[in-house]
Design brief:
The complex is a heterodimer of chains A (83) and B (279). Chain A is mainly alpha-helical and 83 residues long. In chain A, 58% of the residues lie in helices and 4% in strands. Chain A has one domain. The longest helix of chain A has 24 residues. Chain A starts with a strand and ends with a helix. By secondary structure, chain B is of the alpha+beta class. Chain B has two domains: 123 residues, no CATH class; 134 residues, no CATH class. Chain B is 41% helix and 23% strand. In chain B, the strands form two sheets. In chain B, strands 1, 2, 3, 4, 5 and 6 form a six-stranded antiparallel β-sheet that branches. Chain B has a four-stranded antiparallel β-sheet with strand order 8-9-7-10. In chain B, α4 crosses α6. Chain B is elongated. The chains are: A mainly alpha (83), B alpha+beta (279). Chains A and B meet through β1, α1, α2, α3 and α4 of A and β1, α1, β5, β6 and α2 of B.
Chain lengths: 83, 279
């Protein structure tokens, strides 16, 4: 299978963090400061990261459960094959 | 940084969400810095945020891509509005890369305000002059380079199967489990699961190391990002941002294809992007 090549214009999720959180930051008094202003796109980022957030905490448990389930399946399959 | 005493500090409270459909205003939204020459007047047209007209303010050999805006930050709770802004900001940076072969992107919402004594343009020019050499050096260093996002994921089920097939210890434990009474067999299975998990984690670490080392070999710089999982069956092993020279794009693409050629591994390659992560 070839790598999925995403055109730079296509991936909003790839651009969001980069454009909003990276790039050069100027610390000078001529800049408008964002005191008191909520971070732009917080909501959108939450939506795009939604699945990840849900999975973040129980991730290891879920992974663990999956490994166990697969291992059991594997053991069953081997038994069926050999026995 | 520049002499702060010369400027009036402006702090802007929570911004209104009133329309900005018409560009214009006393402040300058700065998209990024490009290598430019004095007297070079460039107008990119209405490609900016909300269709704003983007043009270049030049100071000696440095240019700032700007549009005119009111002296307040862009702020919106609307997802589609933010998405459009982000895409527009990126589009301007892409156009700059195409035209100047180098761009130093600013972070979103970089806005130069007018002060009591100076207009925003004057403030911007003073800043460009003060930072001229450092900015020029940085855009020169970025010439012909772009950022690529390289994300490598794996299917846990496939890796697990490979481990089960290839690691003798797993096979031995399986055999032992079959030969024993149910209580002891259970303990054998527990041990087998522990080994499977350990081997799997080891393989994922190795996958990361391989991807990282190989990406470094064809990049100027590589930064490691947090892995992201989207709720699918795939798990991400490596999430890298790579700064790659124009003549080495193909190497990174070939690497991506090679990694994706292994069973159970998928690769996303995003780019060429402006070098947001390497400013």
């Amino acid at each position: 299978m070839a790598a999925e090549w995403v055109h730079p214009e296509a991936g909003l999720v790839d651009l969001l963090d980069r454009v909003l959180d990276r790039g050069l930051v100027i610390h000078a008094d001529i800049m408008i400061t964002l005191a008191g202003v909520p971070l732009v796109g917080l909501n959108l980022r939450a939506v795009l990261a939604g699945m990840e957030t849900l999975l973040a905490d129980p991730q290891m448990r879920e992974w663990d459960a999956r490994v166990r389930a697969r291992a059991a399946l594997r053991a069953e399959a081997v038994e069926a094959l050999v026995g | 940084m520049t002499d702060t005493a010369r400027y009036e500090v402006r702090r802007v409270g929570p911004a209104s969400t009133r329309g900005r459909a018409f560009s214009g205003g006393s402040a300058r939204y700065v998209y990024g810095i490009v290598p430019a020459d004095a007297g070079e007047a460039v107008d990119l047209g209405g490609v900016g945020l909300d269709g704003s007209r983007v043009y270049v303010v030049v100071r000696r050999r440095i240019g700032a891509l700007v549009h005119d805006c009111p002296a307040e930050p862009y702020d919106s709770g609307g997802d589609s509005v933010v998405a459009q802004w982000v895409l527009a900001h990126n589009r301007v940076m892409q156009l700059a890369m195409a035209r100047w072969c180098s761009v130093l992107p600013m972070t979103f919402n970089t806005i130069v305000a007018p002060s009591a004594e100076k207009t925003a343009d004057e403030n911007l020019l003073v800043w460009l002059e003060a930072e001229h050499d450092s900015l020029r050096e940085r855009v020169d260093n970025l010439e012909g380079k772009a950022e690529f996002g390289l994300q490598v994921s794996y299917a846990p089920a496939v890796i697990l199967r490979q481990v089960a097939e290839e690691v003798p210890e797993v096979r031995r434990l399986e055999e032992e489990a079959k030969a024993k009474t149910s209580g002891l067999a259970y303990l054998c299975r527990l041990e087998m699961e522990r080994v499977l998990k350990r081997e799997m984690e080891q393989r994922v670490r190795e996958l990361f190391t391989t991807v990282y080392e190989r990406a470094r070999a064809c990049s100027d710089r590589v930064t490691v990002e947090k892995v992201k999982n989207d709720g699918s069956d795939l798990r991400m092993a490596a999430n890298l941002s790579c700064l790659v020279a124009l003549d080495r794009y193909r190497e990174l693409e070939a690497l991506a294809d090679e990694i994706a050629g292994h069973e159970g591994q998928t690769v996303r390659l995003v780019g060429p992007l402006p070098p947001y992560s390497f400013c």
